[in-house]
Amino acid sequence: MKKNYILILAGIISFSSYSQSNVTDFEDLNLSTDSYWNGSDQSGQFISNTVMFNNAYDTAWGGSWSGVSYSNMKDDTTAGYGNQFSCIAAIGYNSSATYSIFNPKSNILVTIPNYGALTGFWINNSTYAYLSMKNGDSFAKKFGDSTNAAGVDDGTNGNDWFKLTIHGENSDSVEFYLADFRGSASADYILKDWTYVDLSTLNPNSKNLTFSMSSSDVGGFGMNTPKYFCMDNLTYTTSLSVVENIENSISIYPNPTQNNINVKFEETINNASYRLIDVAGREVVSSTLNGVSSLKLDLSNQNNGVYFLMINIEGEVITKKIIKQ
Fold first, then answer.
1. Is the peptide bond before 254 cis (omega within 30 degrees of 0)?
2. Number of neighbours of residue 30 by Cβ within 10 angstroms
3. In whole angstroms, what is the distance from residue 147 CA to residue 288 CA?
4. What is the CATH number of domain 249-324?
5. Start-end ranges of CATH 2.60.40.3080 in the chain?
6. Residue 267: other Cβ atoms inside 10 A
7. Distance between CA atoms of 103 and 82, rounded to whole angstroms?
């Protein structure tokens, strides 16, 4: 008998008829006070509440990053490149501690589970980008001025703008202006408060997001405005229903564990696979599952912390949060 399962952190549920909202708020990521993660461990990604975020770190010239990082920095006053990891609100959405910082390139930066449909997220300017647009700096102009950073007329007449474009998987996109000086002076703004971006117009089959940024302030090397924005509380929905006794269909124990994790299936599993990854997205172990009804994972040599067991059964990905202590 063919069965598809989806396991989401606290338990096991299957596809069906009612809508459930899932929020990725980054509060499950461990950070010391007033600090950030920028991918310097070269893991290439991290996972927060079942959503994967990609990161690239280049060790050349002292190290630089692109993609997605996360932070709980509160510096809303220091201008310049040295303050890349702060949000101008000095806090996450809804007064939360942790948020993400994007320095987007062309590759996929966000991947939601394949059973989800994107809803939206909350956005704000980074301190770096905000203060650059507000006051200008050595490279970028002050928004609203008719001259560039070098004092030369740039042809904008002060009608400046800074735009994020969110791309789905089917050539559809959503645009959002992080600053806009194209209207009346009284309507000019540089975003400083967390604001919701609605993604419900994207194709519901879109599971991966890419991002591009553009600005009225450009020079010989491209955009002068710092290419950063902040995200918090990414949401996606799932259409689910509780199936009778489904919690007993797959058993995972003990959790938390000190050494081994046991996985038991109600039926023999064929043509399946699994990956065990840590919270930074690094793979610990992976293998196929054929003709088995149980699985044992040895975590005795792994560091204490959070892991995710991702089991692919008949095209559906089952994700389970595991804690080793």
1. yes
2. 11
3. 61
4. 2.60.40.3080
5. 249-324
6. 11
7. 14
Mapped onto helix, strand or coil, the DSSP state of residue 130 is: helix
Q: What is the pTM assigned to this prediction? A: 0.75
C-alpha dihedral sign at 309, 310, 312, 317: positive
* 38, amino acid identity: N
Alpha-carbon distance 306 to 152, whole Å? Answer: 53
Q: Which residues contact 243 (CB under 8 A, 6 or more apart)?
A: 13, 14, 16
Amino acid at 41: D
Residues in the chain: 325
Q: Which amino acid is at 301?
A: N
d(CA 39, CA 44) in angstroms, rounded, equals 6
Q: Which CATH number fits domain 18-240: 3.30.2000.10, 2.60.120.1350, 3.40.1260.20, 3.40.50.2300?
A: 2.60.120.1350
Contact 22, 236 (CB under 8 A): yes
**How far are the Cα atoms of 115, 207, 211, 318 from residue 13, in angstroms, in the given order?**
12, 20, 32, 10
**Per-position pLDDT tens, the chain of length 325:** 334 333 333 333 333 445 678 899 999 999 999 999 999 999 999 999 889 999 999 999 889 999 999 999 999 999 999 999 999 999 999 999 999 999 998 799 999 987 788 999 999 999 999 999 999 999 999 999 999 999 999 999 999 999 999 999 988 999 999 999 999 999 999 999 999 999 999 998 899 999 999 999 999 999 999 999 999 999 998 765 433 333 456 789 999 999 999 998 887 777 788 999 998 888 999 999 887 889 999 999 999 999 999 888 766 677 788 999 9
| Residue 310, amino acid | M
- Is residue 144 within 8 A of residue 134, CB to CB? The reply is no
Q: Which residue type sits at 306?
A: V
Give the number of other CB atoms < 10 A from CB of residue 310: 20
Any residues with CB less than 8 A from the CB of 308 and at least 6 apart, and which?
Answer: 47, 50, 276, 277, 278, 279, 319, 320, 321, 322
